[in-house]
């Protein structure tokens, strides 16, 4: 089952989480490696927590409208 994360009023499915240290080389963060993993996983968004990168899939808002039954008017 996918884990759900709400961040800044947006919903995301967490596909994978990796320790930030996996992307560091001598205290330098390798953002190209983060982007490569994002693309490899098919993720469209990456969130950063204290110790982890969360590779996520954005849950799009659904546009809807009320359907009114003309017979009920």
Could you characterize the architecture of this molecule?
- This protein is α+β, with helices and mostly antiparallel strands.
- The protein has one domain (3-54).
- Helix content is 15%, strand content 42%.
- The chain is built from 1 helix and 6 strands; from the N terminus they run ββββαββ.
- It has one helix spanning 31-41, and strands at 3-7, 10-19, 24-25, 28-29, 45-48, 52-59.
- The strands form 2 sheets. Strands 1-2-6-5 form a 4-stranded antiparallel beta sheet, covered by helices on one side.
- The longest helix has 11 residues, at 31-41.
- The chain is elongated, with a radius of gyration of 18 Å.
- The termini are far apart.
- The model has no long low-confidence stretch (mean pLDDT 90).
């Amino acid at each position: 089952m996918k884990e759900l994360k709400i961040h800044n009023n947006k919903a995301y499915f967490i596909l994978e989480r990796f320790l930030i240290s996996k992307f560091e080389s001598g205290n330098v963060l390798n953002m190209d490696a983060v982007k490569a993993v994002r693309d490899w996983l098919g993720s469209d968004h990456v969130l950063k927590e204290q110790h982890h990168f969360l590779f996520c899939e954005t849950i799009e808002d659904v546009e809807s409208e009320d359907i009114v039954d003309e017979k009920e008017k």
